[in-house]
Protein 1
Amino acid sequence: MNIAIAGLGLIGGSFCKALSNRTDHNIWGFDINSDVTKKALSEKSISRILSPQDFREADILLICLHPEISIKFLNENLSFFKEGTIIADVCGVKTRIVNEMSQMCRSHNLRYVGTHPMAGREFGGYDHSVENLYDNRSFIITPVDDTDTDALETVKSLAVSVGFSKIVTASPAEHDKTIAYT
């Protein structure tokens, strides 16, 4: 499978490192900082640096950007994806993100799955990303009524392959209420 990751900071970089080292998938990277993508390529965390025009070759796009930037990024690049591409985000807030991204993806025949990896470190950025960031952590998936079941299962399988030990399903509203409380 061809997996594109947009945003190679702590979360995206850690996904790149884990997927590259633990799976046989092609892992491709996109970041506005060319120094980061060059470093990821030289470290073999990714096998290819992407431009938006290359997104049409991806089977999955994992958006690892801040919430507002994630929405803007998807909106600006919708036309580059082939029909049926799985789009997932890793935003820590879900209700608004899921509503907006689901609608955008639906209108372009893309399959959206909202997620939130419960992992992090005290420092951000690609230089602090590590292959084992997700080991024995929880991965929250926030499906809605029309979430494609095959896409959902593919995302769950990828989560397990990078080390998540617990997959939790919650509605976007349940997720946000729980995260706000904690």
Protein 2
Amino acid sequence: LVPTDVEQSTAAAEWAFQLGYRTIFVIDDGSTYGNGAAELFEKRATELGMNIVNRIALETAGPLPEEESRLLADRMQALEVDLLYFSGALAFDFVYSIRAIMPSVPVMVSDGLVHPEFIVSGDPNLIEGVYGTSVALPAGQLPASGDFALRFQDTYGREPGPFAPVAYDATKAVLTAIAQAERPTSRNDVLQAMSELGEVNGLLGTWQFDQNGDITQWRVSGWQVQNGRWVFLESIVP
């Protein structure tokens, strides 16, 4: 019940454009996810007239040796890069190593790093101001969520994460399909019922599955590290 990487990467490029960045250095962690997201970001950024001055796929998502970090920093400075876009999953050490050498370089990351662990895996001062996109929105940004956030807080003693409403609606869809299936214990019957759900009224609003099984109603969210935590900034709709 989240947008695909096509939508997220497109939204990330458009958000970077809205933020005023024009000269972009693109790096991915070498994974299928990271490489695909970087390619889609580059495609949309180029369509918008942004200048992708370099593109690198890492062999490892770990911290770069200091010498390599400095060479990369020198290359970005020579190219007058005004934004580093990085796509990858849990590649926290790499981003920290880059910011340790270039503390002022603006960085935007994909949702694989918009994670609480990113903040606590190193010196939070190094990643202050880093932007990130996510395929989920906080409950407070979903008009249909009602008092969900308060009920979640009362039940679990903490605020719901942005994927809590997504998980809630996903569970609702599964349970509804099971209830409507001709044989609730048959995987095929449940899948058939899932494809015939029609409109679902949930925390995300009113939505349904399209012919590909993707959700028809979605938004990408923009975040930034502020004072040692990820802070929601805005909803991005390409």
